[in-house]
Structure formats: C-alpha cells, structure tokens
Amino acid sequence: MGMRINKYVALASSLSRRQADAAIVEGRVAVNGQPLRAGQDVSDGDNVTLDGRTITPAIKTTIMFNKPVNYVCSRDGQGSRTIYELLPAEYQHLQAVGRLDKYSSGLLLLTNDGDMANELTHPSHQKQKVYEVKLDKPLRPLHRQMIQDHGIQLEDGLSKFEVERIDEGNDTKWHIIMREGRNRQIRRTFNASGYEVTGLHRTGFGPYQLNTLALGSCQALGL
C-alpha cells in the first residue's frame, strides 16, 4: 500500500510534516535513487533516502520524563550531566519537546513524532504549561497584579502569565500558568520584579500531567 512521501519522511525522521515538505522541495529526498515526481507515493520495497541516507519509518514513541535539577536536555552536556544518562537505552533516540533549563525540574516530553512535537511547541497552538515556583521572598500583591494583568517588559517583549497561590498563607510558593515559553521567561520575569526563583518544577504540558511519576523516572504514553 502506498504512503504519501511527506508522511513517510516525517515518520522516518525527526522532521515534522511541514519540515518534510520543505526537504522534498529542496531536493534532499530521493526514492530508489531518483528525484521525486509530483504527488509520488512510496510503496513497500522502495528505498527512500534523506540527504543521501536511507530512512525507514520508526514506531512512534513518546514518553513523559520527570527531570531532576542539575541535568541539561541536550545530548552534549558540555561538562554538565544530561537527561540521556537517566533514560533507558530504548529511549535514547528520542528528542525533547521544548526544554527545561539545568536548574528546573519536572515534566519533560520526549518523542520521535515530529508532528506531535510541532503541535505542542508551535506558537500558534498556545499549549498551556503549568509550573510550581518557589521565590526567595513573599510575592507582593502589587507585583502579582502587574505580572498577571499588565505584564512585565523584558528585552524580548512583554511577559504575562497567571499566578495562583498554592498554599493559603504562603506567599513564596505559586502556581504559574502560561501559554508561551520563551527562554527562562519565568525566572527573568520575577527577577525583573526583584525576586529570585529558587525552585521551578513543571507539572503540566498541554494535555499531559506529571501526577505521581517519580523524579528521574519515565513513562511511555499511549498515543
């Protein structure tokens, strides 16, 4: 049975369907050593290459991982420990969907499904992310209102997110709910308001919740 070439490339690589389309247009994909014809499908037994290397569709795998602090999400830790030191061998090929910085912990998704990764991270989809944040001192009501209602101006634009109390009477621990995720945005927003984030733990990402998954453990998701 035939399969659309862009779908085949997306399933056989870390590319999304849109990135696969671009690779095809750029002439990076060939079938049986020949350039693609418009609308060509791939059949069983065809040899498909991307950048000269044969590719075959892999089984789509997505896992949820509870990242500890002091681990980076890249494969090359450049002197730091990486999350791949903690992952079982069968998950070493997966790519992180979005990232948590070295000093943050919690829910991290890893997948070889390019379409899913794009769905979760593309700005147009605005997936909700939930964090537990601990501050070095109580958050003043005025600063909470400024962050929620008006936003804080950072060098890369306005930063605005929901701030909800976790424990009544404790103004140092908060739930943060946001739909964007610029680099170290939560830390920079509070820092600009005179606070230091001493703990940042992600508990939710889109439809996925960390729940009781133990720190440093992973769980395969049924998709």
Describe the structure.
This protein has 223 residues and is α+β, with helices and mostly antiparallel strands. 19% of the residues lie in helices and 32% in strands. It is elongated. The chain starts with a strand and ends with a strand.
Key traits:
223 residues, alpha+beta, nine-stranded mixed sheet, four-stranded antiparallel sheet, 5 helices, 19% helix, elongated
Distance N to C terminus? 23 Å
Helical proportion, percent range: 10-25%
Average pLDDT number:
90
Shape summary: elongated
Number of strands: 19
Hey, roughly how much beta strand do the residues contain?
A: 25-35%
Tell me the structural class. Answer: alpha+beta
Taking Cα atoms only, what radius of gyration do you get, to the nearest Å? 21 Å
The tally of helices reads 5
Spell out the helices and strands N to C: EHHEEEEEEEEEEHEHEEEEHEEE
The profile of the biggest β sheet is:
9 strands, mixed
Low-confidence residue ranges: none
